[in-house]
């Protein structure tokens, strides 16, 4: 990519990266809470803006909705965990609908098995860690989102892998809530894994729909 292309053609991606890094660096600083919350929400909202700016396809609008709801969930998590979790659950349901509409025609048996393992294994892991029924319900949606992303026509190296990073991030949150891992350890990894996952999901979907349009 030529120097400056990211700034010239994908300013929303650049803005999102800068905001995400700023949130990660400043989240431990003694800065007003509203500023930190704004950074957190805006970093993923920028991905929604990127999706809308790059394509008008139905799938682009859908992934923009996923990112927009996710940004609201990020803000919600800072204010009320249940409300934030509910928004993320909604974002997973929208993503599942998108991925099911874009199913891979003939997935290999091993890939189907991987999808089943995500649907079953993520909520089971959440139960073992937290023993919280609400966490299990959320984890079922999370695992289903990752499974349908993995089995969709979108690139597994981008959308599928991004969904797995999202799962890893949330499993670390479960481990923190369940007392399995120390907060000081998990806080260094949760946000980078989550944002990288959202970034890969969004850019992967947009890359596919723009390729469809070019074809």
Characterise this structure.
The radius of gyration is 17 Å and the shape is globular. The N terminus is likely disordered. The relative contact order is 0.12. It is mainly α. It contains ten helices and no strands. It is 82% helix and 0% strand.
Sum up the structure in keywords.
215 residues; single chain; globular; disordered N terminus; mainly alpha; 0% strand
Q: How is the secondary structure organized here?
A:
Layout: H1 5-9, H2 11-26, H3 33-54, H4 58-79, H5 81-101, H6 109-130, H7 133-150, H8 156-177, H9 183-186, H10 190-214
Count of individual beta strands: 0
Give the overall silhouette: globular
Indicate the proportion of strand residues.
Answer: under 5%
- Low-confidence regions: 1-5
How would you sum up this structure in a few lines?
The protein is an all-alpha fold.
């Amino acid at each position: 990519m030529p120097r400056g292309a990211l700034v010239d053609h994908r300013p929303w991606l650049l803005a999102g990266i800068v905001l995400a890094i700023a949130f990660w660096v400043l989240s431990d600083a003694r800065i007003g809470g509203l500023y930190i919350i704004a950074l957190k929400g805006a970093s993923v909202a920028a991905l929604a803006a990127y999706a809308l700016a790059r394509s008008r396809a139905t799938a682009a609008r859908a992934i923009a909705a996923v990112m927009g709801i996710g940004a609201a969930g990020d803000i919600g998590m800072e204010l009320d965990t249940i409300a934030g979790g509910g928004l993320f659950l909604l974002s997973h349901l929208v993503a599942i609908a998108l991925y099911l509409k874009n199913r891979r025609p003939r997935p290999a048996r091993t890939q189907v098995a991987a999808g089943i393992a995500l649907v079953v294994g993520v909520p089971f892991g959440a139960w073992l860690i937290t023993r919280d029924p609400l966490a299990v319900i959320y984890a079922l949606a999370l695992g289903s989102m990752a499974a349908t992303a993995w089995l969709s026509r979108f690139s597994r190296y981008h959308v599928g892998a991004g969904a797995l990073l999202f799962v890893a991030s949330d499993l670390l949150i479960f481990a923190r809530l369940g007392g399995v891992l120390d907060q000081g350890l998990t806080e260094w990894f949760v946000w980078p894994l989550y944002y990288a996952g959202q970034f890969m999901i969004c850019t992967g979907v947009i890359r596919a729909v723009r390729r469809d349009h070019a074809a």
